[in-house]
Amino acid sequence: YYNNLNGTIQIPSWASTGFWDLEVYDYSxxxxxxxxxxxxxxxxxxxSSVWPQSITEGETTTLTIYHNGIxxxxxxLSQNGNNLYADSxxxxxxxxxxxxxxxxxGVNTGSWDLVVxxxxxxxxxxxxxxxxxxxxxxxxFLTPTVASxxxxxxxxxxxxxxxFTGYSGTNTSFYFQSYS
Length: 180
Description:
With 180 residues, this protein is mainly β. 0% of the residues lie in helices and 51% in strands. It has strands spanning 18-26, 31-41, 47-51, 54-56, 61-67, 72-79, 82-85, 88-93, 96-101, 110-118, 122-133, 138-143, 156-160. It has a five-stranded mixed sheet, with no helix packed on it. It starts with 17 loop residues before the first strand and ends in a 20-residue tail after the last strand.
């Protein structure tokens, strides 16, 4: 008849890589039972480092990820349940991954975990590996966008990471420059 035993096996940190036997003592027959080559201990795979360690929202940056033995399936950043996937990535060598990230304007800034999904072992994480910095101030909206020479018209201008407070009416400090 079949019998099941459930438990936890702690692999010692000193354990060498390779196949290991499983031994269980069966008290009903006062004997050790062995299953040869029951499981394999793999070397610990990890992300060693990443360069650069900061990127900026609204900009595109290529990260170089250094690792030992990851077989990548995906690359992303993670912060409090939010994931930001690489636009593209490639294994540039057996120990390096190049990943292109373009965080959009308005993404959460601050520290993010770098996660490389391994085909066999799942997510390999380097905690707080990447800092996403705020975008420099930019103008992102203007209306209207057409005018006639000599015309005076009201405009609406919006920006990101800007402070336009106090700029209303005719006492404003902005101008248009021609590039035609």
